[in-house]
Amino acid sequence: MxxxxxxxQGQACVFNELGFFAGLAEDYLQALQALxxxxxxxxxxxxxxxxxxxxxxxxxxxVLREGHIKLSKTTLNGKEQIIKIVRPGEIFGFDGFVDQLxxxxxxxxxxxxxxxxxxxQLRSLRCYRHEVERLIMVSCIRELHYADxxxxxxxxxxxxxxxxxFLLSWCEGVTPxxxxxxxxxxxxxxxxxxxxIETVSRLFAQWKRQGLIREQNQTIQILDSRYxxxxxxxx
Amino acid sequence: MxxxxxxxQGQACVFNELGFFAGLAEDYLQALQALxxxxxxxxxxxxxxxxxxxxxxxxxxxVLREGHIKLSKTTLNGKEQIIKIVRPGEIFGFDGFVDQLxxxxxxxxxxxxxxxxxxxQLRSLRCYRHEVERLIMVSCIRELHYADxxxxxxxxxxxxxxxxxFLLSWCEGVTPxxxxxxxxxxxxxxxxxxxxIETVSRLFAQWKRQGLIREQNQTIQILDSRYxxxxxxxx
DNA sequence: CGGCTAATTGAGAGACGTCAAATTTGGTGG
DNA sequence: CCACCAAATTTGACGTCTCTCAATTAGCCG
Lengths: 235, 235
Fold this sequence. Notes:
The structure is a homodimer. The first copy, chain A, is α+β, with helices and mostly antiparallel strands. Helices cover 38% and strands 22% of the residues of chain A. Chain A has a four-stranded antiparallel sheet with strand order 1-8-3-6. A four-stranded antiparallel sheet of chain A has the order 2-7-4-5. Chain A has a three-stranded antiparallel sheet with strand order 9-11-10. In chain A, a hairpin with a 2-residue loop joins β10 and β11 (219-222). The longest helix of chain A has 28 residues, at 129-156. The radius of gyration of chain A is 19 Å and the shape is elongated. Chain A starts with a helix and ends with a helix. Residues 1-11, 14-18 and 21-26 of chain A have low confidence and may be disordered. The interface between A and B is large, with 44 and 44 residues. Chain A binds a DNA duplex through residues 158-159, 185-187, 195-199, 201-202, 204-205.
């Protein structure tokens, strides 16, 4: 256990102020205590770094503290599909609770700070194990909802609708008039939405011409969210 | 609690021999005991019956004992996407552990037998609650893997590849040479794979002509699984 | 046997992918 | 600060896969 910690840039990870616990007022304190008793590492990764690869032993799970990462899968003929963009406060890589191997590949989009927690730590944990498992369960159900919505996007919508609702969700919670850093390349947006670079680019160009969105210095801004919503949901 | 049970065709549900527990040797007995202490109903539904509707209060979760059901979501413009086909031994409808409302709509494909368990039962449960929550967690992670694979299918594959890998997974575990009842209509297959009835029908017809598959009395049989696998995975 | 729905098949259109070229962007070194 | 290069993005032309619309056939139940 101490091997992990000393073997790198790692330092003990404090779990304070993690969004991971949002909405769990009831068990919050117990769970917080539980996770803090775990041996964990606080690690930094540069941008475009692979944290783990699909089909390798899933020995640790992670809490993302700063930055963004992408989880992706690849078909046998080499097409990559981005499953999810992980945001700060979310957990990822918990395949090890059930399976031997990771199900996806995790790659950083930006420099990233994570907590790395060996699954074994949790298995051997005594009293607080249940609280953590409950947390994982809750996170899983949330992720499942997200996955269901994405299945609906990919299965039942066309390119414009997909991109529009992606942009809306990406800019969600941003004060109108302000921009949001769009840390994804055209290729990554395409791989997320099941499209090609060119179609994504064309839609961006068209919507810029129409004054729906604006983009400068990798920052995206929605100018006409009302119309974009219509594009996303109605047709 | 007794209201639920007496208010219908319900009878106490015995959780023996449920695939729900597969692969959990470690906690099997504890979990089994835990679920058996819960107040639950054994219910029957005819075919094409709605068990619950999306966006209605998620007061119960279910264990499917016999038959098949489909979980689906609908876009605002009315397109339906089937998220998953639930098979016997699987649990579904556990949104209530996190959210107020169901995330999907559950409709039976065939006459069905389910165990219905009020979420409240679990909340008020004392000693075995943790084991059940752990079971839910494990099921959730499994479902998440399944959802990831489906995202890859819908996002990165074309019609033929999707239908081929669907057929392969549907007939998985069937002794070669034997057929499997295909309980889905063309429309349902289309809604599952994000295609239209016509493309599904055309692919079926083409593959029948080519001698890849055979179909009679709603029973499907894979004749050339080797070539079908090539269609599904390579291109 | 008649009537209904599901499934098949065809023709045509449209959306999206593919390929290729042009343009922009970002980073690096002079 | 500018020139230069590689990579990312944009744009255009074209092909094709899949959808749409419509007509036909098959399957099922009364």
